[in-house]
Amino acid sequence: MSTTRPLKRSRSFSPLTMDNKWKKILKKWTELTSMPDLFAKNGKKCIHFDVQLNYNTETVTVRQVYSDGINSEIYMIDFWSNDTPTQQNVILKLSTDKTMTTEIEAELQMWSFLNGGNAPKVYAYNHKAIISELCTSEIKEETLPKGFKEPPKHLEKLDLNKKRWVGTYNTALGPSARRILNIANSVYKESGLYNIDPNISNYMVIHGRDVQIDYAKERFDSETQFEKWFVKLPGKLQNEKLRDLLIEKNPSAYPPAFYWWKKFVGGASADVEIQHGWEKYQWNTYLKALQIKRNTFVEHLRTQYAEIMKSQPPPPPTEYLAKPTFVF
Questions:
Q1: For the whole model, what pTM was predicted?
Q2: Are the C-beta atoms of residues 210 and 182 closer than 8 Å to each other?
Q3: Cβ proximity of 246 and 226 under 8 Å
Q4: What are the residues whose beta carbons fall under 8 Å from the beta carbon of 282, sequence distance 6 or more?
Q5: Distance (Å, rounded) from C-alpha 105 to C-alpha 197?
Q6: What is the pLDDT of residues 51-88, one digit of tens each?
Q7: Which of helix, strand or coil describes residue 47?
Q8: Phi/psi at 123 (nearest 5 deg)?
Q9: Is 146 in a helix, a strand, or coil?
Q10: Ranges of each domain in the chain
Q11: d(CA 114, CA 121)
């Protein structure tokens, strides 16, 4: 994007307080997005406009940035001063997921923030987008070490099934997946919410605090928790259809761990039926057993590797050519 200050156009807006400036910016941006898209040099969408903040006319830039999310577009917001843009500590998220309205997702995110601080703070929202606190870093994808060696390609192969399961266990028991489980447990404990799609792109970090950033796949664990949230909604959002959307008809006994397991481990349909009824203490036992199973499979693969290498004939002796003799 060019750093040249956009041309200012005269506007007539009511004065804003610091508390509602993001609402005004979101409202103006929403109006402008009904017009044909404008793009910066990097091919991303970008809009410049003026807004009245504290009796001063300020120029604002809302610019799209790269995002891994397939159901949303992410934008940064810059304020201009002395022909220089300054990025603000917020993001604007435009959701393209139609399974839940943006207003309801924002209210769920606010609920999680207010009950446990497990989400970025929401500053403004409307039917189109959410402006919320800017996260400081991603959760880096980290797994456990591989744990075994592969024989040379021309030799016998290791047990493919055990290799696949060790790869799965290395991911599930690795630092990233365990952090996601910890966040899921905290969100559930503090707000009664759980995420049916706990993939790593839905979680980030704010100044050392892990948070969940996407609430479009959220559910309540009970009627009681739902009602606590529902009665605090703005009247225009209190739709009884939300009950069917946000409360599963046959929820698992401990949803945070169940959906984490489905995402990172999975298994046969028979396992799903069994683990659907597991309580939290059973999941704690399962995680310990999973570590033992992973270690056992790694030892099996190491033993198999040693046997394959041992069965090979020794390499032929190195042949040395006799040095020529010179007679003078």
A1: 0.86
A2: yes
A3: yes
A4: 254
A5: 14
A6: 987 778 889 999 999 888 778 899 999 999 888 999 99
A7: strand
A8: -100, -30
A9: coil
A10: 21-96, 137-310
A11: 8
Write out the DSSP string of 50-106.
EEEETTEEEEEEEEEE--S-SSEEEEEEEEEETTEEEEEEEEEEEE--TTS-HHHHH
Q: How far is CA 120 from CA 27, 50, 214, in A?
A: 20, 26, 10
- Report residue 48 as tokens: 């410049």
pLDDT digits (tens, 9 = 90+) for 125-155: 999 999 999 999 999 999 999 999 999 988 8
Pick the range with the lowest mean pLDDT from 3-12, 236-245, 292-301. 3-12
Q: Which residue has the tokens 């456990």?
A: 144
H helix runs in 222-279, sequence order:
223-230, 241-246, 255-264, 269-275
Give the number of other Cβ atoms within 10 Å of residue 253's Cβ.
15
Residue 264 CA to residue 258 CA, distance in Å, equals 10
Do residues 39 and 4 make contact, with C-beta atoms less than 8 angstroms apart? no
Q: Which two tokens stand for residue 71?
A: 């159901």
How far is residue 34 CA from its own chain's centroid?
29
| DSSP 8-state class, residue 10 | -
Strands 193-195 and 129-133: what pairing? unpaired
What average pLDDT score do residues 209-218 get? 96
pLDDT, tens digit, 9 for 90 and up, residues 94-114: 988 888 999 999 999 999 999
Q: How many whole angstroms separate alpha carbon 20 and alpha carbon 18?
A: 6
Question: Quick one: tokens of 52?
Answer: 């009245």
Quick one: tokens of 165? 């399961």
Rounded to an integer, what distance in angstroms lies between the CA atom of residue 54 and that of residue 206? Answer: 28
Nearest alpha-carbon partner for 213 in 137, 161, 318, 326: 137
Helices and strands in the chain, H and E counts: 9, 11
Phi-psi sector, 147: left (phi>0), alpha (psi -120 to 50), beta: left
Alpha carbon 227 to chain centroid distance?
A: 27
- The length of the chain is 328
